Amino acid sequence: MKNLILYLLLALNVIHVALGQIEINPQHPKAEKLSSIMQQLTDNGVPGASIAILDADGWWTYSSGFSSLEQKTRMTDDHLHYLQSIAKTYMAVAVLKLFEEGKLNLEDPMNKHLDPTVSKMIPRADEITIKMLLNHTSGLSEYNFNPEYASTLLQHPETPFAPTDYVRLIKGKKLDFEPGSKYSYRNTNYVVLALIVDHITGDHGNYLEKVVFEPLGLQHTYYEIKNKKLTGEILPDSYWDRYSDGILENVSFIQRQNVAYMVGDDGIVTTTKEAILFLKGLMEGKLLKESTMELMKTWVNGRDQKPAYGLGLGHSDLAGNIAYGHSGGGLGAGCDLKFFPEKNLYMFVAINIGTVTESPIHANLEKSHEQLFIALLTD
After folding, report:
1. Are 273 and 80 in contact (CB under 8 A)?
2. Is residue 78 part of a domain?
3. Cα(87)–Cα(197) distance, rounded to whole angstroms?
4. Would you state the torsion angle of the CA atoms of residues 6, 9, 10, 13, taken in this order, to the nearest 10 degrees?
5. What was the pLDDT predicted at 10?
């Protein structure tokens, strides 16, 4: 009996470790300052906001405001959040895993790994390489600049989109610039990458879960949410300032429908903690080899001739500190995921208001965002 009890206790301990129990430090030295800024954020028009940080003082999380303005439901640390374009970093990891497995080369032209029916819709598909897609130097036009996409999304949000539908939106359009000649961010690049992973693996979503979610034990991270019931999970409502007059409209249905059908460039929902666990796992070599990580951090310059983007990973300088990560914005949500290597600091912040159109609310939002980074990075 004693041995049986000991066995059960050991088994429970293994389960506890496997689940990655996270202990929050309520006495974190930056808690008071950061919580004040988060409260300021929601006092100035943002419906709800959540943040998580991890540094030498441990984990700290905080949520302010409402997940639903109509129901007066508070935002909590357990809510899921739309990652929007941060999903590109996850997608890039999947592509780089295929590179490590020898199933593609970064200098391969995209048409080598695409169905011919897709390649025919893309100009110069025999010249644009997988690396150019990853670092946004392909020259492909932006699918969501097509008025047909915006009108369908806003007027008929129930319309399902197949991955190839996004590519059809750029069919016949000339390249914006010569492939490889400069950096210009395009969501289209990552839709094509998803189709490449589909062609090689049969299902890029399943492959993404296999090589990213499962190795890191991400139990509250979901992709292609149209196929997920999200049982027991909660997504906050989403809000948009349609007329840029400071009056918010609930666009939860449109937001969820939009994200549900996005592939490669978007489509992931997760918690604040699991967003950090992903970036931490990536930075610590739990997903890719060291040599592959060096490739991922091969930066191309932006318009200011400063490093801007690697292979699915953004590079920025905030308050004099280098940061790796990505940001995301959508019709009804916005977020930012960063790692500051010199501080060994991870942070993720999410809001449930759209960031892709103008709003007077954004002025105070940007000020609070800047204050968050100053508070985080100042000793």
Report:
1. no
2. yes
3. 15
4. -170
5. 35
Write out the two tokens for 140.
């492909």
**pTM of this prediction exceeds 0.90:** yes
Summarised one tens digit per residue, pLDDT across range 44-59 is 999 999 999 999 999 9
- Find, among 327, 307, 313, 317, the residue nearest to 283 by Cα: 313
Count Cβ atoms within 10 A of the Cβ of residue 2 and give its class: 0-12 exposed, 13-18 middle, 19 or more buried.
exposed
**Which phi-psi region, left, alpha or beta, contains residue 202 (left: φ > 0; alpha: ψ -120 to 50)?**
left
CA angle 335–341–347, rounded 5-degree value = 25
Number of domains in the chain: 1
| 182 is a domain residue | yes
Domain that holds residue 183: 31-377
On whether the CB atoms of residues 269 and 259 are closer than 8 A, the answer is yes
Give the pairing type, strands 58-68 and 73-74: antiparallel
Distance of CA 180 to the CA centre of its chain: 24
- How far CA 183 is from CA of 94, 133, 165, in Å, comes to 22, 10, 25
The gap between the terminal CA atoms of the chain, to the nearest Å, is 54
